[in-house]
Amino acid sequence: MNINDVIIRHEKENERREVENLIREAFWNVYRPGCSEHYVIHVLRDDPAFVSELNFVMEKDGRIIGQNMFMKTVIEKDGGGVVDVLTMGPICVTPELKRRGYGKIILDYSLERAAEMGFGAVLFEGNILFYGKSGFTYSSEFGIRYHDLPEGADASFFLCKELRTGYLDGVTGVYQTPQGYYVSDEDVERFDRDFPPKQKLKLPGQLF
Ligand SMILES: CC(C)(COP(=O)(O)OP(=O)(O)OC[C@H]1O[C@@H](n2cnc3c(N)ncnc32)[C@H](O)[C@@H]1OP(=O)(O)O)[C@@H](O)C(=O)NCCC(=O)NCCS
Q: Would 198 be classed as within a structural domain?
């Protein structure tokens, strides 16, 4: 794989709609009929927890083909107090270039930049088959639980990677998804009307 054919850089303000459209194309009908992720990033960019220094796009032949972004959040420690951590995403690659290694390139690049900034760990919801290749493991192995998940429920979707080895040593507690990720279906619907029409399909394998 030639990794020299892409440039990874910060998203520019005048590219926001292009990036939202990329995200919409990448997530459409994947986890649910339609998707909400293009609206989620639209909202999160203005959130105080958004890390603008880690808002990356990947460019190939003058076109944006991938993106990733991070938010600050916390683990609420058992016994009190919080540990500052990052969460991640949406992350995507344009559908026609999936499974060619581009996702791993932007993921690894953005994780390195996050580590350089001094962040200690990233936790989020994802597929171990992809993120495991970049050093993620199950958060349960660190003793970190997902908020609102009943005890004994499958938490294999909830992943963690330390950016600083030992950052989570001795930490057990509950991870909190930043509030900004919770958007209403009505707001998503309204936002989506400004994009080209796309058919929502109920497909096997969708989560919702
Ligand atoms: C998830 C996503 C960002 C991965 O990017 P990608 O460029 O397709 O992935 P890569 O080619 O870099 O994958 C690297 C390796 O991870 C694994 N992998 C990637 N996606 C996988 C999947 N859906 N299922 C199983 N393994 C996967 C594979 O082992 C792959 O290597 P291989 O193709 O040689 O087998 C991209 O597929 C995407 O945009 N998907 C739709 C949106 C989405 O689901 N985003 C993530 C939400 S958590």
A: no
pLDDT tens track for 81-138:
999 999 999 999 999 999 999 999 999 999 999 999 999 999 999 999 999 999 999 9
**Beta-strand relationship, 173-175 and 144-146:** parallel
Choice from 99, 124, 160 to test ligand 1 binding pocket (greatest atom count within 8 A of CB): 99
Number of domains into which the chain is organized: 1
The span from the CA of 133 to the CA of 7, in Å, is 21
pLDDT of residue 3: 66
**Ligand 1 centroid vs 16 CA: distance in angstroms?**
23
Residue 186 structural domain: 10-192
Counts of helices then strands in the chain (DSSP H, E): 5, 11
Q: What pTM was estimated for this model as a whole? A: 0.96
Domain containing 120 — which CATH number?
Answer: 3.40.630.30
Residue with CA at minimum distance from ligand 1 atom 16: 130
